[in-house]
Amino acid sequence: MTQSTGTARLFTFQRTPVLDLFSADGCYRPTWKGTGIAGRHRIAYEYVSRYMCEIGLSDGLTPPVWTFEAEPDELEFLAVMLLSDHELAQSDYVTLELNVPESLILRSSYSARCDIYFSCLETGRIEDHGSWLDCSLKDEYPSQTAQAILPYILKRWVKKVVPLRIARID
Length: 170
Description:
Number of helices: 5
Helix content: 25-40%
Oligomer: single chain
Low-confidence stretches: 137-143
Mean pLDDT: 86
Structural class: alpha+beta
Radius of gyration: 15 Å
Order of helices and strands: EEHHEHHEEHEEE
Shape: globular
Distance between the termini: 34 Å
């Protein structure tokens, strides 16, 4: 899935207003207030932010950007798995196709992340040794999709913006 030496094609689902949140220098860094991540959810996200700081990918002060290394025909399935009906009803979303330097990507295990995340929601603590972070192997679910975490998005990485449309079967 690597496009050229040192870069990877990644996809992310973001609320449509993200397109207006790039700074004058062409950088989008999420904020805690802007994402609405709070409480026990924030504890889990801060854990990832601190790890990214420890390995030199970020300053550790902002939430990470979740992206996926996937085939385009997997995106609708992925969006259904990641975004709740409530989220989709509250906001319009876009799919951003990015071409990101490998040096800024932290690949991780999606299923292990979910286990730790949901445990944190129950307990308010992170009980982990970090094995799911900095994963060089593609995650097992879905089989060809890898979770890739970024410290930010640069406008020059954006190759395509497509409104997210999910066909629901009711």
